[in-house]
Sequence to fold (408 residues):
Amino acid sequence: MNIQGIGTISTLGRGSESFTKALHQGPVEPKIVEYSPVTKKTIPVFSVDDKVLKDKEALKSCRRADRFCKMAVLAAGDALKDSGIEIAEDEKIGVIVSTAFGPHQTTFNFLDNILDYGEANVSPTIFSHSVHNAAASYIASALNIQGPASTLTDFCFSFSNALQLADAWINQGRCKYVLAGTVDELSPAMEYICDQKLNISELVPGEGSTFFLLSAGKRKAKYCDIECNQSSKGKEDDGKNISSFNNCPAWGWIASGSSFYCASAALMLKNKHIYQNFIELKKDVSAEHSDNIKNIRFFDKTKKIVFNLTIS
Amino acid sequence: MQESEEKRLVEIRNKLKVLLVDHLSLEDVKPEDIKDDEILFGEGLGLDSLDAVEIVVLLQRNFGLEVKDMNKGREIFYSLDTLAKYVAANTEDKSE
Fold:
């Protein structure tokens, strides 16, 4: 498949331009937030600034949307816009939202509603937004997309699953393009879990959304070709590898963060520049000969999945 | 007597305005922007059917009122004023 457009929302801002600019500039300091008013415990996070999510035009049909849905709609809309492709009315675009945890803040609000008011008096808006597929519906509605839509959750493997499904849809002819991406959010509950329950004290949790407009491989790519396959042992050091643990000092630890690595790799290939400030590169890639870079390959946490991005 | 009823109606209207803004995600609308006789649906505040269900839940939670008859609901939900009058007529005045 070819990457025709990229949209990103993260602590680095909104859009591939601000993402590229931030990668050039170098790491920023995380924010310190208090996740519990009772214990006054704090944690450093890479959160998305609320101002970044204010866009009346792009979110005009999203009055009730929660933070999770807004991030997804903005990133998906930006990916479509970035492609510059005019979609004809009869052309179908698929939507695949992948997420490690879904809209968990809204899910907790829903549970709080039950505890506070009883199950008969839960807000219908909160209930309807607590389902994982709400973001895909908002994207389809906001961008007037006709085509298949699906939401996948598989923790760290969410994005690789999304790419594989997108590939299947395009190959089957179900749609000409697919908007595939990830979205995950921070919340006091997630910050508590990261600080107290998970053994990830060296990681700074982050949030955000990245979407790609993908087309069949035979089309000319605006960015590059992307493949996602099962890795076989012995090929891990073949080529130019990025060690990926879904964590990055730029956007933090996002369980579905392999999409951000794909976005940065696509931008590195397009811009012929290696952003070593952020991404741990193995020996075969360096800034000195980045002009020749044609291929970036990296592995997910368990190294069972390999993402392969190539520019022709 | 009439004066205290009007005072109570003003209090209910103000409470409803705050509830609507807080729970219906009305962007760029402040409670004080809503007129006392503001029409709630269509050309007024622009609310829709999901908002109507949300208002049913708000009435239950905050005033203990159940609106089951949707034909009656049309009259009650017509404007902020009709909504406030329904609340006033069906709840006790605790200030007395």
The radius of gyration of chain A is 19 Å. Chain A touches chain B at residues 56, 63-64, 117, 120-125, 128 (CB under 8 Å). The first strand of chain A starts at residue 2 and ends at 10.
